[in-house]
Write a structure and sequence with these properties.
Blueprint (H helix, E strand, L loop, with lengths): L6 E4 H8 L6 E2 L7 H15 L3 E11 L2 E11 L4 E8 L8 H22 L3 E10 L5 E9 H35 L11 H14 L2 E5 L6 H15 L4 E6 L2 H13 L13 E3 L3 H4 L7 E2 L9 H15 L1 E2 L1 H11 L3 H8 L5 E5 L1 H4 L4 H9 L3 E5 L5 H8 L2 E4 H9 L3 H20 L12 E5 L4 H20 L5 H18 L5 E9 L2 E8 L3 H10 L2 E6 L5 H8 L6 E4 L9 E6 L9 H18 L3 E6 L2 H14 L5 E3 L6 H9 L7 E6 L17 E5 L8 H14 L2 H18 L10 E6 L6 H4 L10 E3 L10
Parallel strand pairs: 1-4, 5-6, 8-19, 8-20, 9-13, 9-14, 10-12, 10-13, 14-19, 21-26, 21-27, 22-24, 22-25, 23-24, 25-26
Antiparallel strand pairs: 2-11, 3-4, 4-5, 6-7, 15-18, 16-17, 17-18
Family: Belongs to the helicase family. DinG subfamily.
InterPro entries: ATP-dep_Helicase_C, DinG/Rad3-like, Helic_SF1/SF2_ATP-bd_DinG/Rad3, Helicase-like_DEXD_c2, P-loop_NTPase, RAD3-like_helicase_DEAD
Protein name: ATP-dependent DNA helicase
């Protein structure tokens, strides 16, 4: 029986499966970014001249497979086909399995080129371009068309069995998804609306911003319609991206409900959970190569068997992946990276699509996938993306490392330090600063001499770490930070603030703070077939569009709330100011309000404050005035066990007040339904501090969008306020109280950011009973 359509494979995938062998080898040789790779190919083309063809599309049918790919360059006059790879450091230390993979790709392209152009032979050249120096290293060989075709045919025969299983899996997956049903008798209120809008996003290939209240089941309400859309609209993969580990667990639970777990004998769906390397590593502290780690030795020799076992198992959460890896004696982290190629739904952190070196984004571009991207708690994406595209270097670290540096690193470290001192003097910070009062300068550009010294240090570090992997984690970290700094410095613009801070004598910090992530994220949104961003606090729409760089045609929808205003009593204490100058005067009325509300309805409450210092002052006053009411407070740098203990005190039959910092661990992402939490007090607008960075942010946002104060301060603050208040009503049976304690909550421009389903808050001041309306 013939296949319903020809089996297709790209040259890169074909070689990834058939040409890798030997050890896993990641000896501190950080790969150039995708941008550097593209720039490198352009530079080689510029050097070659007018007869040089780039991005040569090739295809052919071989041993029952249609093989496609794009060769990097072809010189028609010299009859020379080139495969161009960018790298860092000494080419001699490039892993042997990488070199073998590159040669296999080139020979596949050579076979297709000879067949297409009726050539008897061709010159094949691997070109390695060192991105730091621009130096080319070439490896050339002459090959006949017959030999190349026989080699390609053999690879295709080896791959064909896997390709047939993959095609069969795709057919079974799509057939099952066409028949998938919602796992409950009916949708929750609001959930159907969210599901319909999510399906439309997949059908039309656009970005959806969905503001949907907590408690309606957003995870199922977005996953279910995207799974339904996969066969109908040709989606190859789904990426469910979260901000924190609990979000991944919720996604896996939803997929289990939908029948994706093999024990349910339900969907023929491969599900993969991606975990950070430091959490997946079985041998922390060891280098990722065969001489140091037993799970790296022979990794590619054992990969075919474990890959088949993983594909057969289908459900690859962290525990299952580790179990397979241990059984087959391979690295669980890199097994997960490999299975990202072959999984239908990948659940992981947002960095896997949006970071500069994002795995899933890179695979999608390489494979030409149509990807549906779901982003949970998407109100955090702006802040997370700013972190992804920000980096800093500390002069103090350079000085400390220089004292113990190998001889070969002392000179480049010294040159960088001298250039750094020149920058400090020219910026006028030579005599500035002092304890508690760092001098700060914002720079429009960076001196080429300083960047050149940093590039030289990065090259020297790469060389040293390649020769001596045990040199130390601090040196590896410095290498990665240096490379990240150089990449971002190349793209310095109004989206990023370059800040030089003097922290003391001989101690300055040079930082690139991303302010407007839109310039980096726009291409990531464009690369996805569709994206669904969802959160309980995703407004205003223009704020998300502008700062995330969403494409034209993106839509914003507010899902109607299943909750009624009668469930939540919202009031504003307009006689209290939580401004810094008024903090002392605010302690007594805040404490009185909390105690009075607890007396009216005993139960558990959360009280949120703008800082630990403010929290500690109110907490001490509360304990002194009302020792009979149980009270406990969030502490600085709490461990996971301490956070669990804090939450464990919110029992259904108890009462008391938990004091927490707004925007911290207890301001979002926690679930205390029913009588476990009956109210919240918010004694702050949550405004970011008016420090130099936020003031620069306000100025840049005002210049670009004309909305500096709103985008820099008011919107981020109110998102934290609404998230904290959202801890109170978690399902349709809940009822509770929210007290907003600051006179600015009575202003229209502030109240417009409160959820509409709350209704009109009661604006009041304290009277004899604590509740006399104004």
């Amino acid at each position: 029986m013939s296949d319903p359509q020809p089996l297709r494979v790209g040259v890169r995938t074909l070689c990834d499966v058939t040409a890798r062998e030997g050890d896993l080898d990641h000896r501190f040789t950080p790969s150039p970014s995708a941008r550097e790779g593209i720039d490198g190919q352009r530079e080689i083309a510029r050097r070659r001249g007018a007869d040089y063809l780039t991005e040569v599309a090739l295809a052919g049918e071989v041993a029952g497979l249609v093989v496609r790919g794009r060769a990097d360059g072809y010189d028609r006059v010299a009859n020379r086909l080139e495969e161009i790879k960018t790298h860092r450091g000494d080419i001699a230390r490039l892993a042997s399995n990488q070199r073998a993979l590159h040669r296999a790709q080139l020979r596949c392209y050579g076979a297709l080129l000879c067949a297409e152009r009726h050539l008897e032979s061709v010159e094949l050249t691997l070109v390695y371009l060192e991105v730091g120096s621009g130096r080319e290293t070439r490896f050339s060989e002459h090959a006949t068309a017959d030999a190349l075709w026989q080699e390609l045919a053999e690879r295709c025969r080896c791959y064909r069995a896997w390709a047939k299983r993959e095609a069969q899996h795709r057919r079974q997956r799509d057939a099952a998804l066409c028949e998938i049903g919602f796992p409950f008798a009916d949708f929750r209120p609001g959930q159907r609306h969210l599901a319909e809008e999510s399906y439309k996003a997949a059908a039309t290939g656009r970005v959806l911003m969905a503001q949907a209240p907590t408690g309606i089941g957003k995870t199922l309400g977005t996953l279910f319609p995207l799974l339904k859309a996969m066969p109908r609209h040709g989606l190859d993969r789904l990426a469910y991206l979260t901000m924190k580990t609990p979000g991944r667990r919720l996604a896996l639970e939803a997929l289990t409900r939908l029948g994706a777990h093999p024990k349910q004998d339900g969907l023929a769906l491969r599900v993969l959970e991606l975990t950070a390397r430091e959490k997946a590593c079985e041998y922390p502290g060891r280098a990722c190569h065969g001489e140091a780690c037993p799970l790296a030795a022979g990794f590619y020799d054992r990969l075919p068997a474990v890959r088949e076992a993983a594909a057969e198992r289908r459900w690859l959460d962290r525990e299952s992946l580790r179990e397979l890896a241990v059984e087959h004696e391979v690295c669980p982290y890199y097994l997960g990276q490999e299975m990202a190629r072959w999984s239908d739904v990948v659940v992981g952190d947002v960095n896997h699509w949006f970071d500069d070196h994002a795995l899933l984004h890179g695979l999608a571009r390489e494979q030409g996938w149509r990807v549906g991207v779901l982003v949970d708690e998407a109100h955090n994406l702006i802040a997370r993306a700013r972190g992804m595209y920000s980096v800093s270097l500390a002069q103090r670290d350079l000085g400390r490392l220089k004292r113990s540096a190998p001889e070969r690193l002392k000179a480049p470290l010294g040159r960088l330090q001298r250039q750094w001192q020149v920058l400090v003097r020219e910026a006028g910070l030579g005599k500035g600063g002092g304890p508690g009062r760092p001098a700060v300068r914002h720079l429009e550009t960076l001196p080429p001499s300083l960047l050149g010294s940093l590039q030289a240090l990065a090259s020297a570090l790469a060389e040293a770490l390649g020769e001596h992997p045990a040199l130390g984690a601090e040196w590896q970290e410095l290498l990665f930070e240096s490379l990240a700094f150089l990449r971002l410095a190349e793209r310095l613009g109004d989206h990023t603030l370059c800040e030089l801070t003097r922290e003391g004598r001989g101690r300055a910090r040079l930082a690139l703070h991303n302010l407007i992530p839109a310039d980096f994220l726009a291409a990531r949104f464009a690369a996805a077939h569709c994206v669904v961003l969802f959160s309980a606090t995703l407004g205003p729409a223009d704020y998300q569009r502008d700062l995330l760089g969403l494409p034209k045609g993106s839509v914003w929808r507010e899902v109607p709330s299943p909750f009624a205003a009668s469930q939540l009593e919202v009031s504003v204490r307009a006689d209290i100011s939580t401004r810094l100058r008024d903090r002392g005067a605010s302690l007594a009325p805040i404490v009185a309000e909390i105690a009075a509300q607890h007396a009216r309805r005993p139960g558990h409450y959360l009280a949120f404050f703008s800082s630990f210092a403010y929290l500690e002052a109110v907490f001490a006053h509360f304990v002194a005035c009302h020792p009979q009411i149980p009270a406990w407070a969030q502490e600085r740098r709490m461990s996971e066990a301490a956070r669990d203990a804090f939450l464990s005190r919110f029992t259904a039959d108890g009462h008391g007040i938990g004091f927490a910092v707004l925007g911290g661990a207890f301001g979002e992402g926690i679930d205390l339904p029913g009588e476990r939490l009956v109210g919240a007090f918010v004694a702050t607008l949550g405004l970011p501090p008016a420090d130099p960075i936020n003031e620069a942010l306000r100025t840049r946002l005002q210049a670009r969008y004309g909305r500096g104060d709103e985008y820099a301060y008011r919107v981020p603050g109110m998102v934290k306020v609404v998230q904290a208040a959202g801890r109170v009503i978690r399902d349709p049976a809940d009822s509770g109280t929210v007290v907003l304690m600051d006179d600015r909550f009575a202003r229209n421009e502030v109240r417009q950011h409160l959820p509409r389903w709350w209704g009109e808050p009661l604006v009041r001041t304290a009277g004899p009973t604590g509740h006399a309306p104004t």
